Give the backbone structure.
Amino acid sequence: MKILILYLSFLTSFFGNDNPELTINVQNIKSLKGEIIIGVFNTDKDFLKDGVAIKNYKIAVDKGTETIVIKDLPKGDYAISLYHDENSDNECNRNFLGIPKEGYGFSNNVKPKFSAPSYKDCKFTLVENKVLDIVLLH
């Protein structure tokens, strides 16, 4: 019996999920409706382009700060973009200049000035459990 338990422990540690947890706290939510839409990127190629994020997540909004714990990302380098889809139309609504009309944010709390931020500016390394506090820009 002891051998079986040791064998199962070995298999669990060898084949178990070794992914660190990424906790994202989204702050400065102005409206208590809609969802926070999160895109995860792992390369600068096509960073921030629609439909190319390696993972997407949604959080229903019901308070001024929302949290998600992501457990399915392997160790590596990533960048996060997110927006508050207040009207639940599954797109980041923009004005005629292309500036988001809904709250938005990026990992490292990058604040774009004249253009979208680069992957390099937003990049972080996930090798152990990590907490990101991202403040929405309006």
